[in-house]
Amino acid sequence: MPQPDADDRTPAAALEFLADVLGRSPSAPNVPGAEDPPTADELLAALVRLRELREALSDWEPRLIEAARAAGISWIQLAPALGVTSRQAAERRYLRLNPRANQPELNGEQRVQAARDQRAGDRAVAIWARDHAADLRRLAGQVAALDGLDRQAQASVDAVHDALGNDDSAALLGPLAAAGEQLTEDHPGLADRISEVGARTDEARRSGQNRRR
After folding, report:
1. Sign of the CA dihedral 22, 26, 31, 33?
2. Tens digit of pLDDT for each residue in 172-202?
3. Is-contact 144 190, C-beta < 8 A?
4. Is 141 a residue whose pLDDT tops 70?
5. CA dist list (Å): 83 to 11, 75, 97, 153
6. Which terminal Cβ of the chain has fewer Cβ within 10 Å, N or C?
7. Average pLDDT over the chain, rounded to an integer
8. Phi, psi dihedrals of residue 78, rounded to the nearest 5°
9. What is the C-alpha to C-alpha distance for residues 176 and 140, in angstroms, rounded to an integer?
Protein backbone atom coordinates (compact mmCIF):
# COMPACT_ATOMS: atom_id res chain seq x y z
CA MET A 1 0.00 0.00 0.00
CA PRO A 2 1.43 3.44 -0.88
CA GLN A 3 2.13 6.02 1.80
CA PRO A 4 -1.08 7.91 2.73
CA ASP A 5 -1.46 11.42 1.38
CA ALA A 6 -1.68 14.55 3.53
CA ASP A 7 -5.49 14.52 3.56
CA ASP A 8 -5.43 11.17 5.36
CA ARG A 9 -3.20 12.39 8.21
CA THR A 10 -5.91 13.89 10.39
CA PRO A 11 -6.07 12.33 13.88
CA ALA A 12 -9.46 10.75 13.17
CA ALA A 13 -8.20 9.18 9.94
CA ALA A 14 -5.04 8.01 11.67
CA LEU A 15 -7.03 6.28 14.42
CA GLU A 16 -9.28 4.61 11.86
CA PHE A 17 -6.26 3.42 9.87
CA LEU A 18 -4.50 2.10 12.99
CA ALA A 19 -7.63 0.26 14.13
CA ASP A 20 -7.95 -1.33 10.69
CA VAL A 21 -4.31 -2.45 10.58
CA LEU A 22 -4.39 -3.80 14.13
CA GLY A 23 -7.69 -5.56 13.49
CA ARG A 24 -6.19 -7.39 10.52
CA SER A 25 -2.95 -8.21 12.27
CA PRO A 26 -2.34 -11.90 13.09
CA SER A 27 -1.51 -10.79 16.64
CA ALA A 28 -4.93 -9.18 17.16
CA PRO A 29 -6.82 -10.69 20.13
CA ASN A 30 -9.73 -13.02 19.33
CA VAL A 31 -8.68 -13.11 15.67
CA PRO A 32 -7.42 -16.66 14.96
CA GLY A 33 -6.16 -15.83 11.49
CA ALA A 34 -6.78 -12.70 9.45
CA GLU A 35 -7.75 -13.37 5.84
CA ASP A 36 -6.31 -10.03 4.73
CA PRO A 37 -3.27 -9.38 6.95
CA PRO A 38 -1.64 -5.97 6.68
CA THR A 39 1.23 -5.59 4.26
CA ALA A 40 4.70 -4.43 5.24
CA ASP A 41 3.94 -0.98 3.81
CA GLU A 42 0.75 -0.76 5.84
CA LEU A 43 2.54 -1.74 9.03
CA LEU A 44 5.25 0.85 8.42
CA ALA A 45 2.64 3.48 7.63
CA ALA A 46 0.80 2.57 10.84
CA LEU A 47 3.96 3.10 12.87
CA VAL A 48 4.46 6.50 11.21
CA ARG A 49 0.88 7.47 12.04
CA LEU A 50 1.29 6.26 15.61
CA ARG A 51 4.39 8.44 16.01
CA GLU A 52 2.54 11.42 14.56
CA LEU A 53 -0.36 10.87 16.95
CA ARG A 54 2.02 10.58 19.89
CA GLU A 55 3.65 13.88 18.94
CA ALA A 56 0.24 15.52 18.56
CA LEU A 57 -0.93 14.23 21.94
CA SER A 58 2.17 15.60 23.64
CA ASP A 59 1.19 19.01 22.27
CA TRP A 60 -2.53 18.72 22.97
CA GLU A 61 -2.31 17.89 26.67
CA PRO A 62 -0.61 21.11 27.84
CA ARG A 63 -2.87 23.15 25.57
CA LEU A 64 -5.95 21.49 27.07
CA ILE A 65 -4.61 22.08 30.57
CA GLU A 66 -4.06 25.76 29.75
CA ALA A 67 -7.61 26.00 28.37
CA ALA A 68 -8.99 24.33 31.48
CA ARG A 69 -7.11 26.70 33.75
CA ALA A 70 -8.30 29.68 31.69
CA ALA A 71 -11.87 28.38 32.15
CA GLY A 72 -11.43 28.49 35.91
CA ILE A 73 -10.82 24.79 36.56
CA SER A 74 -8.58 24.36 39.60
CA TRP A 75 -5.47 22.19 39.78
CA ILE A 76 -7.18 19.92 42.31
CA GLN A 77 -10.07 19.42 39.84
CA LEU A 78 -7.58 18.69 37.06
CA ALA A 79 -5.63 16.13 39.08
CA PRO A 80 -7.89 13.07 38.55
CA ALA A 81 -8.31 13.90 34.86
CA LEU A 82 -4.51 13.85 34.54
CA GLY A 83 -4.21 10.57 36.43
CA VAL A 84 -2.59 12.06 39.54
CA THR A 85 -3.82 12.53 43.08
CA SER A 86 -2.84 16.03 44.17
CA ARG A 87 -2.71 19.64 43.05
CA GLN A 88 1.08 19.63 43.24
CA ALA A 89 1.32 16.52 41.07
CA ALA A 90 -0.99 18.08 38.47
CA GLU A 91 1.15 21.22 38.32
CA ARG A 92 4.35 19.15 38.05
CA ARG A 93 2.89 17.13 35.20
CA TYR A 94 2.00 20.31 33.32
CA LEU A 95 5.48 21.74 33.82
CA ARG A 96 7.08 18.48 32.65
CA LEU A 97 4.96 18.62 29.50
CA ASN A 98 5.67 22.33 28.96
CA PRO A 99 8.87 23.16 30.88
CA ARG A 100 9.00 26.74 29.60
CA ALA A 101 5.39 27.52 30.55
CA ASN A 102 6.58 30.03 33.12
CA GLN A 103 8.77 31.83 30.56
CA PRO A 104 6.31 33.22 27.97
CA GLU A 105 8.40 36.37 27.53
CA LEU A 106 11.33 34.60 25.83
CA ASN A 107 12.26 35.87 22.36
CA GLY A 108 13.38 33.61 19.51
CA GLU A 109 17.07 33.59 20.43
CA GLN A 110 16.27 32.97 24.08
CA ARG A 111 14.02 30.06 23.13
CA VAL A 112 16.88 28.51 21.16
CA GLN A 113 19.12 28.93 24.20
CA ALA A 114 16.44 27.43 26.44
CA ALA A 115 16.08 24.46 24.10
CA ARG A 116 19.84 23.88 24.17
CA ASP A 117 19.82 24.09 27.96
CA GLN A 118 16.98 21.57 28.01
CA ARG A 119 18.95 19.14 25.85
CA ALA A 120 22.07 19.58 27.98
CA GLY A 121 20.01 18.88 31.07
CA ASP A 122 18.43 15.81 29.48
CA ARG A 123 21.89 14.45 28.61
CA ALA A 124 23.12 15.04 32.17
CA VAL A 125 20.09 13.24 33.60
CA ALA A 126 20.59 10.29 31.23
CA ILE A 127 24.24 10.01 32.30
CA TRP A 128 23.24 10.14 35.97
CA ALA A 129 20.66 7.41 35.43
CA ARG A 130 23.19 5.14 33.72
CA ASP A 131 25.73 5.75 36.47
CA HIS A 132 23.10 4.76 39.06
CA ALA A 133 21.48 2.01 37.02
CA ALA A 134 21.73 -0.67 39.72
CA ASP A 135 20.02 1.47 42.36
CA LEU A 136 17.34 2.62 39.93
CA ARG A 137 16.57 -0.91 38.82
CA ARG A 138 16.44 -2.12 42.43
CA LEU A 139 13.94 0.61 43.31
CA ALA A 140 11.94 0.01 40.13
CA GLY A 141 11.81 -3.72 40.89
CA GLN A 142 10.35 -3.02 44.33
CA VAL A 143 7.74 -0.71 42.82
CA ALA A 144 6.88 -3.17 40.06
CA ALA A 145 6.29 -5.92 42.64
CA LEU A 146 3.50 -3.99 44.41
CA ASP A 147 -0.04 -5.32 44.22
CA GLY A 148 -3.44 -4.60 45.74
CA LEU A 149 -3.45 -1.09 44.29
CA ASP A 150 -6.27 0.94 42.81
CA ARG A 151 -6.56 1.13 39.04
CA GLN A 152 -4.59 4.34 38.53
CA ALA A 153 -1.78 3.29 40.85
CA GLN A 154 -1.63 -0.17 39.28
CA ALA A 155 -1.36 1.37 35.80
CA SER A 156 1.59 3.48 36.92
CA VAL A 157 3.26 0.47 38.55
CA ASP A 158 2.72 -1.57 35.37
CA ALA A 159 4.46 1.21 33.41
CA VAL A 160 7.47 0.87 35.73
CA HIS A 161 7.46 -2.89 35.13
CA ASP A 162 7.42 -2.32 31.37
CA ALA A 163 10.26 0.22 31.60
CA LEU A 164 12.43 -2.37 33.34
CA GLY A 165 12.63 -4.16 30.00
CA ASN A 166 14.43 -1.17 28.45
CA ASP A 167 18.22 -1.45 28.37
CA ASP A 168 18.54 2.28 29.08
CA SER A 169 18.01 2.94 32.79
CA ALA A 170 17.05 6.54 31.99
CA ALA A 171 13.76 5.11 30.67
CA LEU A 172 12.84 4.31 34.28
CA LEU A 173 12.81 7.92 35.45
CA GLY A 174 9.50 9.06 33.96
CA PRO A 175 7.50 5.98 35.00
CA LEU A 176 9.02 6.06 38.48
CA ALA A 177 8.09 9.73 38.93
CA ALA A 178 4.52 9.04 37.80
CA ALA A 179 4.28 6.03 40.11
CA GLY A 180 5.61 8.01 43.06
CA GLU A 181 2.69 10.42 42.74
CA GLN A 182 0.29 7.48 43.13
CA LEU A 183 2.04 5.84 46.10
CA THR A 184 2.21 8.69 48.61
CA GLU A 185 -0.64 7.37 50.77
CA ASP A 186 -0.25 3.58 50.73
CA HIS A 187 3.53 3.33 50.25
CA PRO A 188 5.06 6.57 51.57
CA GLY A 189 8.51 5.03 52.01
CA LEU A 190 8.79 4.14 48.34
CA ALA A 191 7.26 7.48 47.36
CA ASP A 192 9.93 9.27 49.42
CA ARG A 193 12.71 7.30 47.74
CA ILE A 194 11.28 8.15 44.33
CA SER A 195 11.13 11.82 45.35
CA GLU A 196 14.80 11.61 46.30
CA VAL A 197 15.59 10.26 42.84
CA GLY A 198 13.69 13.24 41.42
CA ALA A 199 15.73 15.64 43.54
CA ARG A 200 18.98 14.02 42.40
CA THR A 201 18.00 14.16 38.73
CA ASP A 202 16.95 17.79 39.11
CA GLU A 203 20.40 18.51 40.55
CA ALA A 204 22.06 16.66 37.67
CA ARG A 205 19.96 18.63 35.18
CA ARG A 206 20.93 21.98 36.71
CA SER A 207 24.60 20.98 36.72
CA GLY A 208 24.44 19.92 33.08
CA GLN A 209 22.80 23.19 32.07
CA ASN A 210 25.32 25.25 34.05
CA ARG A 211 28.29 23.48 32.48
CA ARG A 212 27.34 24.51 28.94
CA ARG A 213 27.08 28.21 29.84
Report:
1. positive
2. 998 999 899 889 888 999 999 999 998 899 8
3. no
4. yes
5. 23, 12, 14, 9
6. C
7. 83
8. -70, -30
9. 7
Contacts of 33 (CB under 8 A, 6+ apart): 26
Q: What is the DSSP letter of 171?
A: G
Integer Cα distance of 176 and 166 in angstroms: 13
Q: How far is CA 157 from CA 23, 113, 154, in A?
A: 28, 36, 5
pLDDT digits (tens, 9 = 90+) for 152-175: 889 899 999 999 998 999 999 989
- Helix spans in 25-107 (H): 40-70, 75-81, 87-97
pTM across the whole model: 0.53
Could you tell me if 156 and 179 are in contact, meaning their C-beta atoms sit under 8 angstroms apart? yes
Q: Where are the domains of the chain?
A: 6-70, 74-105, 108-211
69: number of Cβ within 10 Å: 14
